[in-house]
Amino acid sequence: MSAAVQSAVLGATGYSGYELTKRLLAHPSVKQPALFRVNPDPTQSPNLADWYPQLSGNGYGQLVMDAFSWDALKAKGTDVIFFCTPHEVSRELAIEAGDRGFRVVDLSGAWRLKEATNRAVYKFEDHDPAQAALLDQQAVYGSPELHKYAIEKAELVANPGCYATSIILALAAWTNDGLIDLEFGVICDSKSGVSGAGKAPSPTTHFVEVADSLSAYSVFGHRHTGEMLEQLGLEASQLQFTPHLLPIPRGILSTIYVRPKTGVTAEVLEYSLKEFAVGKPFVRVFAPGKLPQIKYSLHTNYCDIGFQLSPDGSRAVLVSCLDNLVKGAAGQAIQNMNLMFGFDEREGLQ
Amino acid sequence: MSAAVQSAVLGATGYSGYELTKRLLAHPSVKQPALFRVNPDPTQSPNLADWYPQLSGNGYGQLVMDAFSWDALKAKGTDVIFFCTPHEVSRELAIEAGDRGFRVVDLSGAWRLKEATNRAVYKFEDHDPAQAALLDQQAVYGSPELHKYAIEKAELVANPGCYATSIILALAAWTNDGLIDLEFGVICDSKSGVSGAGKAPSPTTHFVEVADSLSAYSVFGHRHTGEMLEQLGLEASQLQFTPHLLPIPRGILSTIYVRPKTGVTAEVLEYSLKEFAVGKPFVRVFAPGKLPQIKYSLHTNYCDIGFQLSPDGSRAVLVSCLDNLVKGAAGQAIQNMNLMFGFDEREGLQ
Amino acid sequence: MSAAVQSAVLGATGYSGYELTKRLLAHPSVKQPALFRVNPDPTQSPNLADWYPQLSGNGYGQLVMDAFSWDALKAKGTDVIFFCTPHEVSRELAIEAGDRGFRVVDLSGAWRLKEATNRAVYKFEDHDPAQAALLDQQAVYGSPELHKYAIEKAELVANPGCYATSIILALAAWTNDGLIDLEFGVICDSKSGVSGAGKAPSPTTHFVEVADSLSAYSVFGHRHTGEMLEQLGLEASQLQFTPHLLPIPRGILSTIYVRPKTGVTAEVLEYSLKEFAVGKPFVRVFAPGKLPQIKYSLHTNYCDIGFQLSPDGSRAVLVSCLDNLVKGAAGQAIQNMNLMFGFDEREGLQ
Amino acid sequence: MSAAVQSAVLGATGYSGYELTKRLLAHPSVKQPALFRVNPDPTQSPNLADWYPQLSGNGYGQLVMDAFSWDALKAKGTDVIFFCTPHEVSRELAIEAGDRGFRVVDLSGAWRLKEATNRAVYKFEDHDPAQAALLDQQAVYGSPELHKYAIEKAELVANPGCYATSIILALAAWTNDGLIDLEFGVICDSKSGVSGAGKAPSPTTHFVEVADSLSAYSVFGHRHTGEMLEQLGLEASQLQFTPHLLPIPRGILSTIYVRPKTGVTAEVLEYSLKEFAVGKPFVRVFAPGKLPQIKYSLHTNYCDIGFQLSPDGSRAVLVSCLDNLVKGAAGQAIQNMNLMFGFDEREGLQ
């Protein structure tokens, strides 16, 4: 058990950064986080409560975001840095953070992928490619349900993507147990609320464009696909992932279609899921025939999973739900920090 | 070309019935429709404008719904009856309508299915099973894009289901042209607005239950599945259909996953779709790489279709959109009436 | 009755401009409108169907927006120009349009106000202040319900603001008839959908910021206040107008609180409203005790009005609703054009 | 400071009852609440997690609702009963609860009003009118900001209405300090999310009826009006309250229009609000010119208050926001319980 940990948040103004900060402020075992902005726009307020008035009056005092510098970070006594920054920024800063001895949880996509073919979609332009390649392999994929022990010792934890989390946690039990006939492929049809697209205004996040509608996007080649392939041990030809933009603020539901291998019954499939969930406090497996809905896991760190098997046993449909800003981002980041510093996995998340 | 047609609407108070009535009132070639209620609740207003105040002041005068009787129907000089009634009611009344010489467009699921195995899900309790069986075969599935000439002469048109329309129109070209490798199956993941669930209040349509959420339902065995199988010539094992309830009032988006046969290129797939759309004024095929969104077809009779092929050519994703109350119900019903009475297919629908 | 009129739309890509264009395309007495962009961004498509795919396939062919110039406008044989441009642009172009003999309907706030004190909020910077001042007085406030005959002959019609329309039409009868005790003031609490804020992305129109919330803004001094004062003949101290941003795409509801003069009964108030509505096809007065809701007038050109009087007769609450993009913008613009060119007021609006 | 308190919830399945139960489960100083249903429908599950699957897996075990009886209540060692029941039920049970020595927090409208004229709107049919009349006077209106010391000792706390809370807390400072010119009246225009209408399905809470719209209702004579009058010391003629139904699940925003007395400046008004908020941890007064929005207080127990004064000083507009299920119901109920049992007012509410 560690003494109180000092965390720092880089980029608290985005949706994930704000959700993270709010939860760090209420976390019983960490000090009030230090807040920093990287290359701040001087016309924008450094006071986080001006960005999120809901923070006012909680007794935290002024929540001022300082301009980021390594010295300022050190002066605060920082133990762990949360990068809530664009992946280009994370890519650059994480190397130096390691050199300076800071432990890091990176919420961007910068360090999640081991395979160069999967990283290609990000078009990283590394200043020191050799060092970056080294860190690519040292970084630990921050799925506590899959890599608990590695996370505990990790210097750099790559917090998983929101879509990836919803699909990896739903499928890991069955792929690990070899229950799926992969020849037929795995079809993942995901639907996400708009906060997944970030806080920057754009034509695609304008209220009028999103409301009363639904759209598919990145039908092939979404950046999170590589995470799913690597973590589930699938080949690209075996996995189809298509996201959709829902007219709701937050939440993801993934509908996953697979063919169980011959002889795999509903009982086997259920047993596999329940076994997987043992000791994983944020995985909720629903009773047979019951399926999760987005609203059940909103504002929580749960990933909810349910499935149904077709009457002839030839097809299974998995449904998983989570809150993209919690289990899909800030909550999972805190769960990772808890593991890194020896806290109970659930601290600050209930 | 017929003279002005007299139509009658049974059940104008539901969402489809209202949408139909509104469009019949504005149709240039039909008289003001006669409105009837079957077994009306005497505590409820017979004036349609009390149910839908948006109808007021359009110069149609009082839109009174009379109590249904065959004599009243005849007295109005009715040429065609639209059944916007529960399928049990349609199942019973359609037989007598035929005996009395009325042409019928039935918006329920009562007469859409030819195969007894597919009809089983409805659990029909026919008073005269032999006559019902006869009518099952005489009824014409009212998809103008598939059965135009049969509809023109039909006495009983079974207006297709909303989900079924979105999937049949998207897939018909490729299944007809034999472009899909059916061994891998066809996965249809559909999402619908709440009006598809009808106007009767229920826990599942309560605003608070639907808002900010998403849920899958009828993961296997939804009633519209049989229509898809029969119209596309697929076997049950080849088609997976799963609907979801969207927090929007209206509109359907279906995402459909297929494997093209070896050697079938994007050009072949596109050509097939475009050929299919020729002469079909309400099918819009999107340019390669562009996909429809729900908002594009709202309040129109279009079914919008687009697709993308994976870079390796092994998977195609079709997206189709329509307004469940228009092309998925009332608009398609009017399109059918137009064909039955020799009008231009587009009359009253633009 | 004029022969077919040639219209031109400047700025068809915004929400009002698109709504206008769509309705002009379907208008039975005008030719297909000429579309122009003022200082177009060359990186953006000139094809309107790329901005609004819902336009595709309607048989209008390519809807290309040309770069604006006076010569191009003349070459198209333009009779009337609709300015769907920022008010600064309208302020500049309208003067030259008049000099060149084009009739104009301006949808911006540039020419709506007669009083310099009311115009001050816009901070106009006129190149030729004298000519602008002249045009300020010549411009006709385009409320067909108030200024029908002036509109018929007008060269420049200033299409009213959306909020202003909802409040002016609700109050005009009672202020004209002197039924309100103005000493107590008139309180107007309005709520509008997000399209009223325009199509440009901004933090305040981001889906996540708007959804599940409500906010008041411009509590004092909103730009539309001046229109209300001038058209209703009120002094600033007598009118309070506060708008709110609703989490819906379109529609306005205004709740208006007044004190009737002593002795003014519900019957008098109702009679006044009904008298006002005579001959005004787009004003719907609801039966006593019934109130309009936003959904009743969506996608129509109606302004719906209802009221209730307190049991003691001391307070009346008026509720008015309209679609901000139709009666609050594009529909009213077409209504004005209809009057300017001798068409039936309702053409293209039903 | 009391030892752990045993609470009981009657009616945990409604929105307020569920919100309350969830918060009691997490409250650090109370035992797991006993759950009861009054006259339960035997076809409905007694397990609360079947009603709200989001409760699953939180480590609370089965949350079974027993059939209510006084003996069962006593057997659980109940110290305080929360009535989340219809007001008729609360009206009947509260009397016997007092006789049996249970302390009560009633979330219905049964016991909030002191004046018979105000109570008339509820049409109570008391079995023992004399005893009911006695309890009407003994019951304490459960606004901790107004009646803290009475609540501490109360046997029966009448938890305030949601609308009433939003208006009373916004106005109490200024009415107490005599800053408002009441001759001109106080106009309260409130807007509420749909959960305020309860969980029972009805035409007015159907998703399709609520979405994309807004409506005013109970324009005069809403049940919460009496609470406002009594708590603020106003006469009926001085207060106008009109609620509206917003297409969001939860949250209330009230816009309140008043005339300050001559000479009352913005500084005086602000000082009065800030003075009022001293020692009231759940009242947040916004900085001058800043106004609360519904999203700021969602899922919290705050009532947020801001105001602006017109440039000429003649009118002030107050805006207050709260979550109708938290500060407007369950959160305030817990705050009351905290006071009744000597806990910190904020326990279980942060």
Automatic annotation (TrEMBL), chains A, B, C, D:
Family annotation (CDD domains): AGPR_1_C, AGPR_1_N
UniProt superkingdom: Bacteria
GO molecular function terms attached to this record: N-acetyl-gamma-glutamyl-phosphate reductase activity; NAD binding; NADP+ binding
GO biological process: L-arginine biosynthetic process
Keyword Amino-acid biosynthesis on entry: yes
Principal location class: cytoplasm
SMART domains on file: Semialdhyde_dh
Pathway: Amino-acid biosynthesis; L-arginine biosynthesis; N(2)-acetyl-L-ornithine from L-glutamate: step 3/4
Active-site residues, Swiss-Prot/TrEMBL: 162
Keywords from the UniProt entry: Amino-acid biosynthesis, Arginine biosynthesis, Cytoplasm, NADP, Oxidoreductase
Cellular location(s): Cytoplasm
E.C. code: 1.2.1.38
One of the record's GO cellular component terms: cytoplasm
Catalytic activity as recorded in UniProt: N-acetyl-L-glutamate 5-semialdehyde + phosphate + NADP(+) = N-acetyl-L-glutamyl 5-phosphate + NADPH + H(+)
Protein role: Catalyzes the NADPH-dependent reduction of N-acetyl-5-glutamyl phosphate to yield N-acetyl-L-glutamate 5-semialdehyde.
Protein name: N-acetyl-gamma-glutamyl-phosphate reductase
